[in-house]
Automatic annotation (TrEMBL):
<comment type="similarity">
    <text>In the N-terminal section; belongs to the phytochrome family.</text>
</comment>
<dbReference type="InterPro" id="IPR003594">
    <property type="entry name" value="HATPase_dom"/>
</dbReference>
<dbReference type="GO" id="GO:0009881">
    <property type="term" value="F:photoreceptor activity"/>
</dbReference>
<keyword id="KW-0157">Chromophore</keyword>
<keyword id="KW-0716">Sensory transduction</keyword>
<dbReference type="Pfam" id="PF01590">
    <property type="entry name" value="GAF"/>
</dbReference>
<dbReference type="InterPro" id="IPR016132">
    <property type="entry name" value="Phyto_chromo_attachment"/>
</dbReference>
<dbReference type="GO" id="GO:0009584">
    <property type="term" value="P:detection of visible light"/>
</dbReference>
<dbReference type="GO" id="GO:0006355">
    <property type="term" value="P:regulation of DNA-templated transcription"/>
</dbReference>
<dbReference type="Pfam" id="PF00512">
    <property type="entry name" value="HisKA"/>
</dbReference>
<keyword id="KW-0418">Kinase</keyword>
<dbReference type="InterPro" id="IPR003661">
    <property type="entry name" value="HisK_dim/P_dom"/>
</dbReference>
<dbReference type="Pfam" id="PF02518">
    <property type="entry name" value="HATPase_c"/>
</dbReference>
<keyword id="KW-0597">Phosphoprotein</keyword>
<dbReference type="Pfam" id="PF00360">
    <property type="entry name" value="PHY"/>
</dbReference>
<dbReference type="InterPro" id="IPR036890">
    <property type="entry name" value="HATPase_C_sf"/>
</dbReference>
<dbReference type="InterPro" id="IPR013654">
    <property type="entry name" value="PAS_2"/>
</dbReference>
Length: 720
């Protein structure tokens, strides 16, 4: 451990010292009670144990004065738990350090929060945090360092006094901070090295009572890797401090502080820096989320227009080709292509048709082909793409049909830029078997090619949503072309109802409702009355409830695309499994009598057949819940026309046979939603599944006396 303080580990129950650092005051050794050496610490530790923190890491307890060799000395005390022990860390402070406590920084922190609110960019936020942390700590130089997707770090902001050289805008390779070091930064937000020339202090005994070395991962005094100390010396710094910037639970970057000479920052000042950095991270997260929300709203407007254009045309491709500006605007791309096995249509700045065909064939051949593919460095995935990097270094692709290998591509051109590294990132080391720190920090320039501007999350989401809409339209058009029978015509109407509701009545309006309501709540909430905020919350809740209906609609649509996997199985076993599942949500006080006859075997897709049984049981339980005793029967009738005939009968409210034709239609309900909840999709799913198996459905009922639902499945010899 580092020598700018001393460490004790304690048994939590008896407060007996288990280990002590070699620089601890005389008398502080293993086996001695804390009250015998430092009685003033006992109440402090007890209070910590009685009110444990919910956060990881060392926590400042208080400043105490201890008698050390009959001389009063003041210490800042921090504690955390490790290996079943209480780890106490004490740093001696001077009178000036006491004056620089957390209260002394309160006005600065308040001003910092106000400045953050007024910042309009990430760079401005970073400049503010660099300036304030240098003011609090007194370091010669403070950097704000952000990691990219490859864990290279770029200095976005810097504040210094000119003693150390400027690193602003320099990039440092990922190898400077290895994976294990980044994980430590994520787990322990703050680390300080007051003197890079320190001699490590041992802990005695070296092993805990459990027989293993003490875990110092959360310690403020823990030593650092000799490689890191050598790195500091090569950088010309005698002291350093780092504060991790965590956005969510991910390591976004670091606040890195350096001093030419040894320099110690009091614990409370360090805690102020940690607090300040956490506020900065929250503001950073809010700003990034706000920017994404605005972009989502803008892209949803483009998507709604494209959806209308596609719906008006006989082919969705015509709807896209006639409105090229909106196609490009959906992903903020310079070019796009619509590629099928037969044709390749190009929009804007794109590679040649032959090169686009190369991309089409490459994506089609991927065994792990995703519905949406995106990259900002296409040539890293497909080296041949380097030949057209000026048109397509960035690729965003959606798969419209995997069966026929159809895609929509968006392209972004290469953005050639010069990156300034803090030393040569690929300079070889003298001894390959040993990890070496960087020795040179002279600016080393590299021209980066083959990369485009990265695709944002809202842009990828907009492409994914367009894919869903296109697939819905393609399915509708396919059924329209194949509408040669009454069955196909009815299926076509169901698909049209689905496409219209999701595309026009639900998806776009709900996006606007939720998006603008959230913006109103976050940006104008402080100006609204309590009743106004309640109204906004009610709008958001209602929009999300409607999303449940969308989910059911999507499930209905997907039934038609699910590949049937027919196997022969025991119907009684399947029905019993679904019966048990259905009863899980039934109140214990409700009486349900099940009458399940011999059902034999059936040849069907078990997953889809379960959905049929689940929907029929759910309806029977729902519509008979007002009966003193619900009676639900599942039976099998004699075969008819080569089909097995099954039925589910209940003694519920029944229905008027005059409306029987509406039962299996989408959104068709024979009872008020106030009386019986539901979306009107369940029986439509039953019919679609049964018909995909080659069977058919019908129902019989009488008001007040119950209903019976029949379905058939084609027979095979072993099913009888």
């Amino acid at each position: 451990m580092q020598p700018h303080g001393f460490l004790l580990t304690l048994d939590a129950a008896a407060l007996v010292i288990a280990q002590a650092s070699a620089n601890a005051p005389a008398g502080a050794r293993a086996g001695v009670g804390l009250d015998a050496v430092f009685p003033a610490l006992v109440a402090v530790v007890r209070r910590y144990l009685d009110h444990p923190s919910t956060e990881d890491g060392a926590h400042y307890l208080r400043t105490v004065t201890l008698d050390v060799d009959d001389v009063p000395q003041t210490y800042e005390v921090a504690a955390h738990r490790a290996d079943g022990l209480v780890v106490l860390e004490l740093e001696e402070i001077t009178g000036l350090d006491v004056e620089a406590g957390l209260d002394a920084h309160t006005p600065r922190l308040r001003a910092f929060v106000q400045r953050l609110r007024q910042a309009h960019s990430v760079e401005e936020l970073c400049n503010i945090v660099a300036e304030d942390i240098r003011h609090i700590t007194g370091f010669d130089r403070v950097l704000v360092y952000r990691f990219d997707r490859d864990w290279h770090g770029t200095v976005l902001a810097e504040d210094g006094n000119g003693v150390l050289p400027s690193y602003l805008d320099l990039r440092f390779p990922a190898s400077d901070i290895p994976v294990q070091a980044r994980e430590l930064y994520r787990r322990n937000r703050l680390r300080i090295i007051p003197d890079a020339t320190y001699e490590p202090v041992p802990i005695r005994p070296t092993l805990t009572p459990a027989g293993k070395p003490l875990d110092l991962g959360q310690s403020v005094l823990r030593s650092v890797s000799p490689v890191h100390v050598e790195y500091m010396r090569n950088m010309g710094t005698g002291a350093s401090m780092s504060v991790s910037i965590l956005v969510g639970d991910a390591l976004w970057g670091l606040v890195s502080c350096h001093n030419r000479d040894p320099h110690r920052v009091p614990l409370q000042a360090r805690n102020a820096c940690d607090f300040l950095t956490q506020i900065f991270a929250l503001q950073l997260f809010a700003q990034e989320r706000g920017a994404q929300a605005e972009q989502r709203l803008a892209l949803s407007s483009v998507q709604s227009r494209l959806l209308g254009f596609m719906a008006e045309e006989d082919s969705f491709i015509d709807g896209l080709l006639k409105h090229p500006h909106d196609v490009l605007a959906l992903a903020n791309a310079a070019g796009a292509a619509i590629v099928t096995e037969e044709r390749c249509r190009l929009i804007g700045e794109t590679p040649s048709e032959e090169q686009v065909r190369l991309l089409h064939d490459w994506l089609s051949a991927q065994t792990d082909e995703a519905e949406v593919f995106s990259t900002e460095a296409l040539s890293e995935n497909l080296p041949e793409a380097g030949a057209f990097a000026d048109k397509a270094s960035g690729l965003l692709a959606i798969s419209v049909s995997k069966k026929y290998a159809s895609y929509i591509f968006w392209f972004r051109p290469e953005v050639v830029r010069t990156v300034k590294w803090g030393g040569n990132p690929i300079k070889p080391v003298a001894e390959p078997d040993r990890l070496h720190p960087r020795k040179s920090f002279e600016i080393w320039k590299e021209e980066v090619k083959g990369r485009a501007l990265p695709w944002t999350v809202p842009e990828v989401e907009a492409a994914r949503d367009l894919r869903t809409s296109v697939i819905g339209i393609v399915l509708r058009r396919a059924e329209e072309l194949a509408a040669m029978s009454e069955e196909l015509q009815r299926s076509n109407k169901e698909l049209e109802a689905f496409s219209y509701s999701v595309s026009h009545d639900l998806r776009a309006p709900f996006r606007h409702i939720v998006g603008y309501s959230n913006l109103l709540k976050t940006r104008e909430g402080q100006h609204l009355s309590e009743k106004g905020r309640h109204y906004v919350d009610t709008i958001i809740e209602a929009a999300f409830s409607a999303g449940t209906l969308v989910d059911n609609l999507l499930a209905f649509s997907q039934m038609g695309r699910h590949t049937l996997n027919r196997v022969a199985g025991d119907m009684n076993a399947l029905v019993e499994e679904e019966r048990r599942k259905a009863m899980r949500d039934i109140p214990a006080e409700r009486t349900v009598r099940w009458e399940i006859g011999p059902l034999g075997r059936a040849h069907a897709d078990p997953f889809m057949l379960r959905l049929v049984i689940e929907n029929l049981f759910s309806n029977a339980l729902k519509y008979s819940r007002d009966r003193t005793e619900s009676v639900i029967e599942f039976g099998r009738l004699p075969p008819k026309d080569g089909e097995a005939v099954f039925f589910v009968r209940d003694n519920g409210v029944g229905f008027d046979m005059a409306y029987v034709d509406k039962l299996f239609g989408v959104f068709q309900r024979l009872h008020r939603v106030e009386d019986f909840e539901g979306t009107g999709i369940g029986l439509a799913n039953v019919r679609r599944i049964v018909e995909r198996h080659g069977g058919h459905t019908w129902a019989e009922g009488k008001l007040g006396e119950g209903a019976t639902f029949f379905f058939t499945l084609p027979l095979r010899g072993e099913d009888i």
